[in-house]
From TrEMBL:
Keyword DNA-binding: no
PANTHER family, A to Z: GLUTAMYL-TRNA(GLN) AMIDOTRANSFERASE SUBUNIT A (PTHR11895:SF151), TRANSAMIDASE (PTHR11895)
Top-level taxon of the source organism: Bacteria
Entry protein name: Asp-tRNA(Asn)/Glu-tRNA(Gln) amidotransferase subunit GatA
Keyword terms: Transferase
Keyword Transferase: yes
Alphabetized Gene3D superfamilies for the sequence: Amidase signature (AS) domain
Domain Amidase as annotated: residue spans: 25-310
MF-aspect GO terms: transferase activity
Length: 310
């Protein structure tokens, strides 16, 4: 079965038109994990029995015509996010045998829509790192080049999706832990605004900065997942009561007149590689072509950002 770069919409369509069953698609992802994760190390924990039990239930839901939005879609979770059925180590062996008695609100929301949890992804221990080399379970390798890192701290989540071991992954971002590995692995990844998604069930790194968001193969997947995950949670006093917009509709709007600032200090870096600069400039030009207003700005304290953060 070809599962290369499948999106949520493609998996759901295949299940609805009976191109494959939830058990078959789940087994395909489990087989890919078995074949490739020994080299990549994207997973800390995998529960094949749990995954296939969920898949069988998903097939029953499709047979009854009562399927939910994510019915039968295999996904994974950063191991710094608590789940009831699979241990949550946070990437640290001190929690090697810890299985949480509670589950993160965002994960419960995802699972309540029928998504199939197949495992927990490797990460820098408790989020402390930017390369996923600081995990007590070993470093995560980039699926495109095993000599390179996958980024961090959510490197396992990014590597799992990029290597076709998961359709999407839910991760956590304090200072780049979704955005940077998503970039390193060629994915769509979103750090939501603080308070947009509940932080309940997250192993905190910095509570006033931590956010939870998705990684996937398409922006459309990100929008759908945000519609499911977002919203106020009585278990998180910092979650905002604002109405959740239809992100899937919002992404279809044009960008005419949208203002985007380009900080000049981000480009005054000796380590900036020419090919990276070329890629960035190509995206800036694309945004211009789509009607965005590109505005040069200055953030003079940029050089202090990393020392202050760490």
């Amino acid at each position: 079965m070809d599962i290369h770069k499948l999106t949520i919409a493609e998996v759901v369509a295949g299940l609805k038109n009976k191109s494959f069953t939830a058990v078959q698609i789940t087994q395909a992802y489990l087989d890919t994990i078995a074949e490739h994760d020994g080299d990549i190390n994207a997973f800390i924990s995998i529960d094949q029995d749990l995954a296939l039990d969920q898949a069988r239930y998903a097939d029953e839901m499709y047979a009854q015509g009562t399927e939910r939005l994510l019915e039968g879609v295999p996904f994974s979770v950063k191991d710094a996010i608590c789940t009831k059925d699979i241990r949550s180590t946070g990437g640290a062996t001190i929690l090697d045998n810890y299985t949480s008695p509670f589950e993160a609100t965002v994960i419960t929301k995802i699972r309540n829509q029928g998504a199939i949890l197949i495992g927990k992804n490797n990460c820098d221990a408790f989020g402390h790192g930017a390369s996923n080399e600081n995990s007590m379970y070993g470093p995560v390798k980039n699926p495109y080049n095993l000599e390179c890192v996958a980024g961090g701290s959510s490197g396992g989540s990014a590597a799992a999706v990029a290597a076709d071991m998961s359709v999407f992954s839910i991760a956590e971002d304090t200072g780049g832990s979704i955005r940077q590995p998503a970039s390193f692995c060629g994915l769509a990844g979103l750090r939501p605004s603080y308070g947009r998604n509940s932080r309940y069930g997250i192993m905190a790194m910095a509570s006033s900065f931590d956010t939870v968001g998705p990684m996937a193969n398409s922006v459309q997947d990100i929008a759908l997942l945000m519609e499911i995950m977002a919203g106020q949670d009585s278990k998180d006093a910092t979650s905002v009561p604002d109405q959740v917009p239809s992100y899937t509709k919002e992404i279809k709007k044009d960008l005419l007149g949208i203002k985007i600032g380009i900080p000049k200090e981000y480009f005054d870096v000796d380590a900036l590689q020419p090919e990276v600069l070329t890629a960035i400039n190509a995206q800036i030009q694309l945004l211009k072509d789509l009607g965005c207003k590109i505005i040069p700005v200055s953030l003079p304290h940029t050089k202090y950002a990393i020392p202050v953060y760490y």
